Amino acid sequence: MHLFHRQNLSILINRSKLTVCCIAVALLAAACDKVVDLDLETGTDQLVIEGNLTDENGLQYVKLSKSTAFANTNTYAAVSGAIVTLTDDSNKTYDLQETVAGTYVMEGYAGISGHTYTLQVGVEGKTYTAASSLPQKIWIEALAAKNRSIANTNNQQEITVSYHDPSVTVNQYNFLMYVNGVQVKSIFAYNDQLNDGNYITATLMQDDIDILSGDTVIVEMQCVDQAMYTYWHTLMQQDESNGTGVSSADPPNNISPTALGYFSAHTSERKVIIVP
Amino acid sequence: MRLSLTGILLTAVVSCFAQKKYTLSGSITDQATGEQLIGATVKILELPSVYTAANNYGYYVLLVPEGSYTVIITYVGFQTETLKVCLKEDQHLNISMTPGTEMKEVVVHAANADVGSPQMGLEKISMAQINAIPVMMGEKDILKTITLLPGIKSSGESNTGFYVRGGGSDQNLILLDEATVYNASHLYGFFSIFNTDAIKEISVLKGGIPAEYGGRLSSVVNVSMQEGNNQNFGVQGGIGLISSRLKLEGPLQKGKGSFMLSARRTYFDLFLKASADSSIRGSSLYFYDLNGKANYHFNDKNAVYISGYLGKDVLGLKDNFGTNWGNTTGTLRFNHLFSSRLFANTSLIYSNYKYTIESLSAASDFKATTKITDLNFKEDVQFTFDDAHTFKFGLNVLHHAITPGNISVSLSSVTTIEKRYGYESALYASDSWRPTSKLNLLYGLRLSSMLLRGPGTFKTYDAEGNSLTSDTYSSGANVKSYLNLEPRFSASYLLSTGSSLKLSYHRNTQNIHLLSNTNGGTPTDIYVMSSTNIKPEINDEISAGYFRSFRENNYEFSAELYYKQLQNQIDYKNGAELIANQDVESQLLYGSGRAYGLELFLKKKYGRFNGWLGYTLSKTERKFNEINDGNYFPASYDRRHDFSIAGIYKFNKSWTFSATFLYGTGNAVTYPTGKYNVGGLTTFSYSARNGYRMPATHRLDIGATLEGKAHRKYHSSWTFGVYNVYGNDNPYAITFRDSETLPNTTEAVQTSIFPDPMPSVTWNFKF
After folding, report:
1. What is the mean pLDDT of residues A101-130?
2. Of B84, B100, B116, which residue is a domain's last?
3. Which of B32, B66, B100 is the last residue of a domain?
4. Smallest Cα distance from A270 to chain B, Å
5. Alpha-carbon distance B171 to A104, whole Å?
6. Number of domains comprising chain B
7. Is residue B124 domain-resident?
8. Alpha-carbon distance B459 to B209, whole Å?
């Protein structure tokens, strides 16, 4: 059993720092969080490309939208009328059709592990290109729940996911978690740098949603390529540092010329657990 | 007539040259304890241009023509001594001073030697002031107190990390009895490792760094441990809100040798047991410090000192993980006087910093360790050539052994990041030259070398971080070497007896670099040496200043301007992985920096009311090709305005009151300018690096000390304090998230860690 990840190590270090703060503060004072008004630039809205290609036969989609100013509501203008194509290793090109405004799809297609795909988006007089390799598929061996190890006041649970990391190859994973149908606002991006070839049980540590007995939790496991790992890992680091460390910046992605978002060719598998 | 006048002049000149000079030398000590007083000033009343300050070992030497003189010795916190000396031959004169500050408001003090000294950027705070200044939770802290001085900025709310004149927190050389302290903080920066009970003296060089110091770009913080009372045995201690202290000291042989042992431990753990949270209940959280020192003076010519420090932080969360870290240092020193003019110090120094994190869970088993171990040999010689020249020269050989990461997971796999070995060596020489009675020069050269040695595999990387070359070296093979010549120069010109102009230039280099992408004191800090990828960091700094003492030397004013240019600075790629990464050097970016500023400082040194006022106007910028389109951007700790006041007022024999106030521009930070949705999550987009400012920080702290009634054998006192008196919400961090109250919107949240006034009380005793 290997429960160890470098990512968990850095999370632990961050958490231990927070724990010290919490304890010091709880003993002698009270830390306070308050919502503040900041005068933030509005900037120009940028193009956001979110492309996903999975190994599951079905609907593959690319979403095009515009970013918006921080002070606005979380509504993002759809970008319509783009020409979106996907090209595989053998230079075969597929057109994606715009169904809903800003969403471009192709049906009845599955990506294949070991193949590299190129996404091309022609919009607003520019052509954007992104390439991504679909990695070898690794299956979830088990999902389990255990008592949350930090700041547990109400028998909160945390979810562990087990899988067998293949040796020799470099593997990267991205997990998504849904509790009773609501996505957890945390990023779980791991690689095998310190546990290559082991049977791994990773704890999906988060404090967004309290998981309690009876909850239905879905975990999606994606095997992603190096560039996508860097993308998710950068966002995860910025999230974990809680504004006290890593300088925030747009994560490096595989799109050229510069645009926000990513194109990810990945495997996908979902498993469900009802927390005992 | 004309001829005879020339004749008289000639005779006068000849007789002047012919006049024999003798040395007046010895050590300056505290009469009550025998402690040597570093930096105490010795002056000759009849010869205004003849004065000196005791060196780091309390030794002074003056060259004076035959005659009868009045010798005046001054030291902050001690009564001024006046001695009559009739000098007919070289004379050894040990001076002991009586502690005590005068209650009278204005006392005549000898002219200020600091004004005439070419040394710039030197700050000292007496331990009496440090003990009187209010601090968080009543834990006296030399590092927090020095951040109240101009040019020295705290790295965060109640944090012991600091930045000097725009340099990084790893660019400060922190020395405890000459041993490098790598992580000077406890509990992630809330407290410093220096237990004030055990500390005799602290000085900070923030500029004009003389040739005997090297290895860090920005500052030298020199902390000396107490030697112990060589007259009487004593016990002192204190019981505070979070920790207790105990110190033992006494003579090994009265007047010849002494020892000091001091310990401090916190007791957060007791409070944890009261927690409602079961995971906190079974947890541990404490730190401790042990300081020890002993010395023996064989005679006036030979003395030996041995000192050591051991400190550790332990934090364990039940069934979860445990982490501990700490420094160990040891110093063995031998002082020898070859003659009254030739003083030598030989030191053998050990320094170690180690960090461990391990799983305490039954289900998993991992342990990660990082450490750095230094062995250092140092020889320093001071030679008083004549009354105009004092030479200093020496050498230094320092061996580093760094374990960047040793990670064991269960029984099966151990991942070891290769150890690194290297030598940092230096040769230096300097001359303190007084060409005229008004002009003082201090100039020197330091030759520093870095030698990275095998065994190990060493790679070079391209801009994307891919490995270009990989070479394996055997044990002891030379991998990479750097040689740097560092000129140092400073000068002072006396405008009048109480005022001077000073100018300095120095180049410093740094071959050991801290990799950390958090602000201040994370114990996982990783150290790397200059290598095929990392070049030595270089700082060229010029400063100019005006210094003045007035009102019979009771007040001191200084204005200093500085400009520094930094080369080969380090930043990190987006998403850099620094922990447990064999290819950590592939994660780095290299750039340059510049910093400039004005520091104003008004200090009242003596009297019932003493303290200071400091103001800094500064700008600190960095430049990396990969960040901000290659344009200069403000460093996160760039602080435009920084203002501080510290005041101590001795009301009567029983009560002393103190207060500090500080104001500082907020840190430069990167805030989002936009947002978008990917992977189902609200994600923020950013523009220029550090383009925004956190709100300004300001805070008032107050303190009071109540001295108990004097008993013959026993003395006690109470210290009271209130931190953040008017409860200002100083920002610790600002984060951005989906709103918790208004759906479909986002919000900015400011976290303040000590938003409320926080009282503290400590009881101290001594017998």
Report:
1. 95
2. B100
3. B100
4. 15
5. 53
6. 2
7. no
8. 35
Set out the domains of chain A in order of their start, with CATH numbers.
6-14+138-247+268-274 (2.60.40), 47-133 (2.60.40.10)
pLDDT at B107 over 60: no
Cis, bond preceding B455 (omega within 30 deg of 0)? yes
Closest residue in B to A42 (Cα) is B673
The model's confidence at residue A152, banded by pLDDT at 50, 70 and 90, is low
Above 50 in pLDDT, residue A98?
yes
Query: Where residue B315 falls among pLDDT bands split at 50, 70, 90?
Result: confident
Task: Mean pLDDT check: name the lowest of B18-22, B581-585, B620-624.
Answer: B18-22
Nearest CB among A32, A245, A250 relative to B518 is that of A245
Torsion angle in degrees (nearest 10) through CA of B381, B382, B384, B387: 150
The pLDDT of A46-54, averaged and rounded, is 96
What is the least distance, in Å, from the CA of A155 to any CA of chain B? Answer: 10
Note whether A261 contacts B364, CB cutoff 8 Å. Answer: no
CA B506 to CA B543: how far, in whole Å? 9
B719 within a domain of the structure (yes/no)? yes
Q: Which of A15, A35, A185 to mutate to test the interface with B (most CBs of B within 10 A)?
A: A35
| Complex confidence, ipTM | 0.92
3-state secondary structure of B280: helix
* Contact residues on chain B for A50, CB-CB shorter than 8 A: 677-679
Q: B135 with B141: CB under 8 angstroms?
A: yes
Nearest to A247 among B670, B681, B745 (CB): B670
A199 pLDDT band, cuts 50/70/90, is: confident
Is residue B324 in a domain? yes
In this prediction, residues B28-45 reach a mean pLDDT of 86
CATH number at residue B27: 2.60.40.1120
By C-alpha distance, the chain A residue nearest B316 is A16
B230 shares its domain with B90: no
> Which residue did the predictor score with more confidence, B710 or B603?
B603
B607: left (phi > 0), else alpha (psi -120 to 50), else beta? left
Using CB atoms, which residue from B188, B573, B752 is nearest to A31?
A: B752
* Residue-wise pLDDT tens digits, B79-95: 888 889 998 888 888 98
Q: Which of B279, B285, B671 sits opposite A40 (nearest CB)?
A: B671
Which residues of chain A have a CB within 8 Å of the CB of B321? 12, 16
Confidence bin at B2 (pLDDT 50/70/90): very low
pLDDT at B424: 97
Domain with B50 in it: 21-100
Q: To the nearest whole number, what is the mean pLDDT of chain A?
A: 87
| Residue A49, H or E segment | strand A47-54
Which phi and psi (to 5°) does residue B474 adopt? -85, 170
**Whole-number pLDDT of residue B470:** 93
DSSP state of B58: S
| Partner residue opposite B729 with nearest CB, options A34, A37, A45 | A34
pLDDT, tens digit, for every residue of B642-652?
Answer: 999 999 999 99
Q: Do the Cβ atoms of B670 and B690 come closer than 8 Å?
A: yes
Using CA coordinates, name the residue in chain A closest to B723.
A29
Does residue B629 sit within a domain?
Answer: yes
Instruction: Give the tens place of pLDDT for each residue, B337-359.
Output: 999 899 999 999 999 999 888 87
Query: Across the interface, do A33 and B749 touch by the CB < 8 Å criterion?
Result: yes
Per the structure block, which two tokens stand in for A234?
């950068």
Instruction: Confirm if A225 and A132 have CB atoms less than 8 A apart.
Output: yes
Q: Where does chain A have alpha helices with state H?
A: 6-28, 226-240
Distance from CA of A214 to the nearest CA of B (A): 22
Residue A118: predicted pLDDT: 97
In angstroms, the separation between the Cα of residue A78 and the nearest Cα of chain B is 11
User: Residue B738 pLDDT more than 50?
Assistant: yes
